[in-house]
Design goal:
6 helices
């Protein structure tokens, strides 16, 4: 068990190379480390999609979110064939499953050297120009090709790919899991004075890393921790430095010592219990999480400071608005009668 953390939990709780990119699948942010320029959609292409004005901003498109366990799944149109992709704010590039690439006859145009949750690996890069999320093109025209095993959770859940920040960074984004809806707004049209969750909770400033990774500060048991917004992670994951600083209760024995996500390094993972997790003016009490010194923390320059991956469980009762021009996150709105009836499988209801 990591030293300096509170004991008491049982251990049985649950050859061309592309440039840098990162993905949060199963807490497996990946980064391609060097290489050639990327052919990608620019802002003019993103903003050229027809939009309409609403009180929330200029809405470009909206698609339903399907919740499977803690996975946020959105439909992606591949020339009329609907695929199921994980919505992953921790991914700087999109990805497709190897079986999907074969089925769609996607040409392989490069190899990517990736740095992930469990170290480094090589992955093919396929070119595809016609994937769409609603009315929005799916970001970069080149996608990583990942093994089908990486796009499953081992419990008969299989996914076709990942929607990453190569798409999301071109829009202001509302991820509204309670209403099961993803909305993309014309970038810069949601602000401090308008928007779907504004006025209900204080704004949280953020910084960008590695071309689209969102970093901001949270409080874990009252201690400041650098958080990475990672909706591709189905759990909250702290590094040992954060667990020690916050006095998090951690299991005596690891619940897993296997590699997770991209890479082959075996990383001991401990179950953990967080007394209080605060993001701005929103707080969750008694949050289940994990402690693991994933190599990705080192890749993000966070290996020697308190850090965590803020995964999808925080959003199960808490809509999130990402405003890129303001560099602000806004979590939650006032809980109404419909919200209070929503079942949540982690922690208490957030308090806006």
């Amino acid at each position: 068990m990591p030293s300096g953390v509170r004991r008491g939990m049982r251990g049985d709780s649950r050859t061309s190379v592309r440039p840098a990119a990162t993905v949060g699948l199963f807490a497996a942010l990946f980064a391609a480390e060097s290489g050639n320029p990327v052919y990608c959609q620019d802002f003019r292409a993103a903003e050229g999609v027809e939009s309409f004005t609403s009180l929330e901003g200029e809405l470009v498109t909206e698609v339903p979110i399907e919740l499977e366990g803690n996975w946020l799944i959105v439909p992606v149109d591949a020339r009329g064939r609907m695929l199921r992709f994980i919505l992953d704010t921790g991914a700087t590039a999109g990805a497709v499953a190897r079986s999907v690439a074969r089925r769609l006859n996607l040409p392989i145009v490069a190899q990517a050297r990736l740095s992930g949750a469990s170290g480094r690996a090589l992955a093919p890069v396929a070119e595809v120009r016609w994937l769409r999320v609603g009315e929005a093109r799916s970001g970069d025209f080149q996608k990583w090709v990942l093994s089908d095993g990486l796009l499953s959770d081992g419990d008969d859940l299989r996914f076709d790919g990942i929607v990453g920040s190569d798409l999301l960074k071109y829009y202001d984004i509302l991820i509204d899991v309670p209403s099961r809806m993803l909305k993309l707004y014309k970038r810069g049209t949601t602000s401090a004075n308008s928007g779907p969750v504004v006025g209900q909770a204080s704004a949280v400033p953020f910084k960008r890393q590695l071309g689209g990774i969102i970093r901001f500060d949270v409080l874990v048991n009252g201690e400041t921790v650098a958080a990475i917004l990672d909706t591709g992670s189905p759990s909250m994951i702290l590094n040992t430095v954060a667990a020690e600083a916050a006095g998090v209760t951690v299991s005596d024995e690891p619940v897993s010592e296997e590699a997770r996500g991209i890479g082959s390094e075996k990383v001991p993972t401990y179950s953990a219990s967080i007394d209080a997790l605060e993001v701005g003016s929103v707080q969750l009490d008694s949050v289940d999480g994990e402690v693991a010194d994933l190599p990705i923390f080192d890749r993000l320059g966070l290996d020697d400071e308190p850090a965590m991956l803020l995964g999808s469980p925080f959003l199960l009762r808490c809509p999130l608005l990402i405003s890129w021009r303001e560099r602000e996150l806004r979590f939650c709105r006032r809980l109404d009668e419909a919200d209070t009836e929503t079942e949540v499988d982690t922690g208490d209801a957030p308090r806006p």
